Structure formats: structure tokens, C-alpha cells
Amino acid sequence: MTLDRRELLAVFGGGAFGALARVALTELAPQSGSVWPWTVFSINLGGTLLLAHLVTRLQERLPLSTYRRQLLGTGFCGAFTTFSTMQLELLKMFDTDRYALAAAYLAASVVCGYVAVYAATVLTRRVRIIA
Question: What is the model's pLDDT at position 93?
């Protein structure tokens, strides 16, 4: 296995922009652990929609390009959406004894995530976008 420095650079560049975008959005709307974390929930669902669209589009419609997938999928979407931020939100809810809210947030995140993947994939396959 050889190391492809351009691929690593694509992941790094996309990841830097994704992480900065996520931090900027969470700083604009900080939340306590006693309310629904709309910012993180929206970031994760938006990133899931984008990732599903990109994966479908890059694999089925455009010529294969490792660098586009690594830049946008692994890098940007991987850093923009983050399971660890969701876990921190859940821990804040547990710390404030909001167990029902935590369970609802966890369930909604998983269910809505799968719905987002399905919807983005179906729409991407149906809508022909001029590249």
C-alpha cells in the first residue's frame, strides 16, 4: 500500500473547512444541556444529506475521482458532522437529568439520519444535474 500525499491533503483540506464550519455554527447558537440541541442536530442532518448526495453523485454520475470523494466526503462531511459532538450533547442532557430528552434526541438523530440518506440518494438519482 502506497501513501498518496494528494489524497491526504484532500482529506486534511476538506476536514479543516468542515470543522471550521461546524465550530462557527455551534458558536453562533450555543445551547445548554436542558434543551433540544437544534444546532448540532441540524448540522448532523445537513451533513448527512450532503454526504449521501455526494456519495451517490460521485459514484454513479461523475467519473471516479478519489480526491473529490476524499475532499468532500471524508474530509468536509466527516469533520462537519461529528458523533462526538452528539455524545457531548447527550452527556449534557444526562448531567441535567433530562433522560427522556436524551433518549428522544438519540432516537431522532438515528431515524432522521437514515431518512436523510434515503431521501438524498433517491433525489440525487432522480434529478439530473448538469455537471
Answer: 93
